Every structure is written in structure tokens, then in C-alpha cells.
Amino acid sequence: MECLTAAVRNGADAVYFGGGAFNARRGAKNFTGDDLAAAIDFCRLRNVKTHITLNTILFDTELTDALNFASKLCSLRADAVIVQDIGLAALLREYLPELPVHASTQMGVHSPGGLRFCEENGIERAVLSREVSLDEIRRMHENSPVDLEFFCHGALCMGFSGSCLYSSMAGERSGNRGTCAQPCRKNATVFDRRANENEFALSTNDICMIDELSALASAGICSLKIEGRMKQPEYVATVTGIYRRALDGDKPKDARARLFEIFNRGEFSTSHIRGDSVRTGRVGSARPSKELINEAHESVRSDRQARKVRGELSLEEGSRAELVLFSGEYCGRAYGPVCEKANNPVDRERYAEQVKKLGGTPFYMDECRVDGCGFLPVSQVNALRREAVENLTAAILGKPRGERLFTEADIARFIKPAGAAEGSPLLYERFRDIEKALASSADMIGFDPTDPANTDVSPLFASGKKLILILPNVLITEGARSSYERLAASGAFSGIEINNVGQLYLGRELPIRIAGIGVNAANSASITKLLSMGITHVMPSPELTRPQLAALSEKFGSVMIVNTLGRAPLMQLLHCPVKEYRGCRNCKGYPGVLTDGDGRRFPLQNVRFRSGADNYCLVRMMNSAVTDIREALKASGIRVFASAETPDRAPDSPVTRGHWARPVD
Questions:
Q1: Phi, psi of 359 (to 5 degrees)
Q2: How many CB atoms lie within 10 A of CB 291?
Q3: Burial class (CB in 10 A: 0-12, 13-18, 19+), 649
Q4: How many helices and strands in the chain, by DSSP H and E?
Q5: What is the C-alpha R_g of the chain?
Q6: What single string gives the DSSP state of each residue in 383-395?
Q7: Beta carbons of 595 and 192 less than 8 angstroms apart
Q8: CA angle (288, 293, 298) in 5-degree steps
Q9: CB within 8 A of 148, min separation 6: which ones?
Q10: Could you tell me which residues are beta bridge partners of residue 375?
Q11: Over the range 442-452, which residues count as b (16 or more CB within 10 Å of their CB) and which as e?
């Protein structure tokens, strides 16, 4: 509550926070029970919107509780919920259509296709990926009515949000589930040796957009978001206050210096809005002066977001005294005793000043009109004011909406099972090399091009095989998207594997359409939603355990593809650490390895976008261990499509069963 108060009293128009479970900062001190209702009321009275985070992927056993929590938020009049899980988003539109939904940055919206998904599924606002450029923001804004929100200050993840499995695979604490252990902030190097204590090749500097506000607004951003749910109230007060003043045209001359002083990880960046400005290698530092801390404390003393009200006091002799407080569409009315005849001329200004004493309330008053010449004791005026304030408060907060309780039966009505698999498991094998792909005898063969713009697919035409074009999790530019569109339309492929909601509209004419693990389908509602959009096969999240996969296979085994062999992609990087520390090596598929402080070696893969205006790579950090659950899957009796890929390089790599028997937190 201290942080929330600091944000509101320093000029925030909206605040976002969690309510316990189902939020991406479960380690923060979130709001629960009466505190949650009090926080929402505190903001509503000050005309500040509340956006509550429900931004984690969910398992089947959690869908009912998550929907009921959203119902509670709806009854408390929260202004929106921020959602990652597409299954939950679909359930909210089905059962709570009156509750506004925003797409979390964890949903990975970074393209016009992502906004189309939002628009078609009733999602009013998208918090864009931090890696998008001004040009891409402008393109998205010009082609979609969906509101665009963007992080303007705070921590920057090295990998794309919602596409990170590093913490999950390294230690069972999932970033997609709100318990990220932030292993990217630990020692790491791109040199082929164990990282030393001063190397942090994945720890990025923070973003600061204080000098880019007009550019972001011009591009189409309607809401600027400050990261800070794990920070101190002094940080929240300082950063919010500086951005508020800047938006109001009163940016302090030393704004950047103050922002740097309150917290930094080395030189600030603007992420990728004007090209790659990200740098790594620094840990957090905060050494604010006593003066800055005192200013932060002083800033929360006055309630600058208090609502302005107008008063009308009627003191007609022989009639009951009446006070009405107006605030926009709301009013609070109170009646007092019958006004007596005044022995002396009435000092209306004195009465008005008494009514204006609204200290300790969320209101302030500049104007109060007093009518009539009757007399009323000061104590009665004060009583009128208190009652009018109470009634105005009640009018603004409104009566609680009815809270509907949902059951597992409601969830079951939404789910549309595809049926269990029959016969022997089929194989979907995935390659980066065309020759190896053509040599495979798998039932379906996935091809993951290293350079999509310059890939010659002519050898594929005569193969007669079911070839699947694999898309990366991130297609950050129009040129990159066009490259894959051309490949999909070439006639060489029978299907496409998508790995982001923005790709759901690519390759729609192809008979096989696979939702890859990048879509984060972890529950029956997500799979149902994907199938309703023309997806033919779904690769569930690799964060599911054997019992969870078995339960899903009973409903969807005929369309499920489970990864049985290969390296899990841990991070998707638009900033290349190899290029930063060793210079661009013009690599074609394998930039090298990243080694952590424990000596674990994480191979790097890249997808090159080198044509036209595009000149960048998407780098994937793969797991140090090869996931292999082939025998475990066979022994379990789970009947699904199996997916395998040739583990790249290092044949002596350690082997893991991933989350087959170790659930994520």
C-alpha cells in the first residue's frame, strides 16, 4: 500500500498490482482480502484506474479459481485485468464480458497480427513487447483500434517476455508462473570458459524513456508503464513524479540524473525503439542522496490526486439545511436541522470556508456557494460536511456488483475435447538443415530456416513429404514477417508451426497448422481456443508434468504433440551477447555458447534477417541439457504425437527429463 500510495500521490493515472496468486510477481507483497478492496477503493476515489495482474499461464486445476478471482475483481469494480494465458482470456470473454481485459507483455504482442488477435478476442489494450521499434509501434497503431501501452522505465529482461524458460528449466521457478529466479542476473560469459564473478553477459541495463515521451505518443502509445512492483516506495515516488512532470511539460533539468540516482544498472537504454541500445554486464545500484529520499517522502504528504468537488450549501430560514457536494457525475447530499433566524448578518464566506475543510478526505474544494440567510451552528455545518462526504464517497464507489461464483462445470462447458489418440504414436521431427529434413522418414518433418529471406526451397518440392515451416517466437519487423509469408506461400510446405499469437493468421490456407511451445498452451481452455482458430495440432507447454500431460491427452491426445527429444529454447534474444562482447561473427545458425558461473554450456542458435531494411538476428539460448523423455513417454502409456529434433553440437551434453517429474513453482 505504501508503494501504491506513492504512485497515486505522485501523479499516476493508473496503477497495476497483483492480488496474490496468478500474477507475474508472486514474490512481491501483493494485495489480498480486505487490502485488495481497500486499494481499489483508494484509487477509485481519486479517479485513478486499477489494472490487476492475472498474467501467468494456468494449469487446468487453476482455471476455476482464476475465473472466480476475476469475478471478485469485477465485483470490486477493478478497471481491467492484465492477462497472459489465452485460455483465461477466452474464459473471461465468455463468462465476464463486462470486465475489460488487457494483454500482458507476457503474451508477447509485437506485431499487427498480435493486435488482430486482441481485437478479435475482446482484448482492449496490449502491453507491447519491450523490443519493438518506433516504426513498428506506428505500424501497429495505424492498423488497429487496440490501445497500446509500453514500458517507459525500469528493468529490461534480456529475453522476450513470455518466451523465457531459463528460470523454469534451471531451477523449477517459472517466469511464466510468476516465480522467476532471475538467473539472467547471475554470472555468464560468451567466451568458451566458466564465467567469472565480474561477468554478466545476460544482465541488461534498465530502460529510461524520459527523453522519448513525445516520440512514443506520436507513434501511438496511449499509456506509459513504469516497472516497479519489487521496488521501494521512494523509488516509486521519485520515478512516477518525474515522469508526471515531464508529461505535464515541466520535466526537471536533472531528470535523468535523479532517475539514475534512485536506481540503475549502468547507463540507461531505450531498448530497441531506435535500434539496439541494450548493454549488459552490470548489476543493480541505488545510492540516493538524503535530499532525494526526503523529496520522495515529502511528495506523498499531499494528496495531489484528490478529486475536485463543488459545494452548494442552502441555509434558508425555517427550512432544513442542505449541503450537496458535486464531483463530475457524482454527488453527495446531506440534510441538517431547520435553520434559525440569524441575529446578525450572515457571513456566507465563513460558512463556505467551513465547508471547504476537506483535509483527510480524498477531495478538495475551490468553490462553495451559500444560499439563504439562516443561522446554523458550526458544529452542524461540520456534521453536514462529514455526511455529504460519506454519501459522495458511497456514490463514487457504487454498490458492489454481484459476484458470480463459477464451478468446474462452467469450465467443462467451455472445453471442446478433440478426443484421445488412437493407434501408434506418430513422429514429428524437426531440423534446421534441408538435407537432413529430406532424409527423415518421420510422419511430419519440420524445417526451421536459418535465413528465411535467402532460403532456397526448390529441393523440397519433389520430396512428397509432409513438410512443416517452423516460425520463430519473434518476428519483430514487417520484413521478417514477409520472408516467412513468402516461404509459406511457396507451395513447398504442407503446414506451418506458429510460436506466437500474432502468427495465428499466417499460413491459414495450409492444411496442417501447429501451435508450437512458444504459444504457452498449458490448459484445456487454451487448446480449445487454438483449435477454434483453425489450429490442427498443439504442442503443450514444456512446463507440464507427466500427470498434467496425461490428463490433457485424454481430451486432446489426437491433436497433441509432445516434445520428446531436443534442447528446450530457454530465451529469445534480440540483443546478441556474442556481438556485444566479440563483435558480429556473421554466423549462420550457431553463434557459439554461453557459459554460466557453474560451467554449464548453453548453445546459441540464430535466425538471420539480412535483407532489405532488416539487418539483425534473433538469437535463441538453448538448454545446456538435452531433454529426452522418449522412453518415459512410451512407458507412461500417454498416446500423442511425439516431437524430436537432432540435438545440436556437443553430443556429450547432459540429459534431462525436464518437468516430466518435477513440477514448476
A1: -55, 140
A2: 10
A3: middle
A4: 20, 29
A5: 29
A6: HHHHHHHHHHHHH
A7: yes
A8: 160
A9: 125, 126, 128, 137, 140, 141, 220, 221, 222, 223
A10: 340
A11: bebbbbbbbbb
The confidence score (pLDDT) of residue 665 equals 80
- Count of alpha carbons within 13 angstroms of residue 591, beta-carbon side: 28
Q: Kindly state the DSSP code that residue 356 receives in the 8-state scheme.
A: T
What are 245's three cell numbers?
512532470
How far is Cα 70 from Cα 401, in angstroms, rounded to an integer?
12
> In terms of Cα–Cα distance, which of 576, 571, 599, 573 is closest to 586?
576
Report DSSP letters for 440-469, one per residue.
---SEEEE--SSGGG---GGGTTS-S-EEE
Q: Which residue matches cell numbers 541494450?
A: 278
Dihedral sign for Cα atoms in the order 81, 82, 84, 90: positive
Residue listed under C-alpha cell 456566507: 348
Cα angle for residues 206, 208, 211 (degrees, 5° grid) = 160
Inter-axis angle of helices 255-262 and 290-299, nearest 10:
100
> Which residue type, as a one-letter code, is found at position 352?
A
If 0-12 CB within 10 Å is exposed, 13-18 middle and 19+ buried, where does residue 131 land? buried
CA quadruple 248, 250, 256, 258: dihedral, nearest 10:
-100
Say how far apart CA 512 and CA 35 lie, in whole Å. Answer: 49
Q: Which three cell numbers stand for residue 478?
A: 514487417
- The dihedral of CA 549, 521, 555, 440: what is its sign? negative
**Cα 297–chain centre separation:** 30
pLDDT at position 230: 80
Cα separation, 297 vs 291, whole angstroms: 10
**For residues 526, 528, 532 and 533, what is the CA-based torsion angle, rounded to 10 degrees?**
20
Among residues 99, 49, 90, the alpha carbon closest in space to that of 529 is found at: 90
CA dihedral sign, ordered 518, 519, 520, 524:
negative
pLDDT at 7: 96
- The pLDDT score that the predictor gives to residue 30 is 72
The rounded distance, in Å, linking the Cα atoms of 110 and 130 is 9
Taking the chain (665 residues) in runs of 10, the rounded mean pLDDT of each run is 95 91 66 89 96 95 95 95 98 97 97 98 98 97 97 95 93 88 94 94 97 98 91 96 97 96 94 96 90 96 91 97 96 96 92 95 95 95 97 92 92 97 92 92 96 93 94 96 96 97 96 97 98 98 97 97 95 96 92 95 95 94 95 93 77 88 89
Report all structural domains of the chain as residue ranges with CATH numbers, in order of start. 2-156+204-299 (3.20.20.70), 171-197+569-622 (no CATH), 307-397 (no CATH), 417-567+626-656 (3.20.20.70)
Distances (CA, A) of 563 to 427, 532, 566, 663: 10, 23, 7, 16
Q: Are 244 and 12 in contact (CB under 8 A)?
A: yes
Are 645 and 590 in contact, with CB atoms under 8 Å apart? no
In the chain, the N- to C-terminal Cα span, in Å, equals 26
Q: What pTM does this model have?
A: 0.95
644 neighbors 429 (Cβ within 8 angstroms): yes
All three cell numbers of 382, joined, read 461540520
- What is the signed CA dihedral for 333, 335, 341, 343, rounded to 10 degrees? -70
CA distance 569 to 322: 69
C-alpha distances (whole Å) from 358 to each of 30, 382, 396 are 30, 10, 16
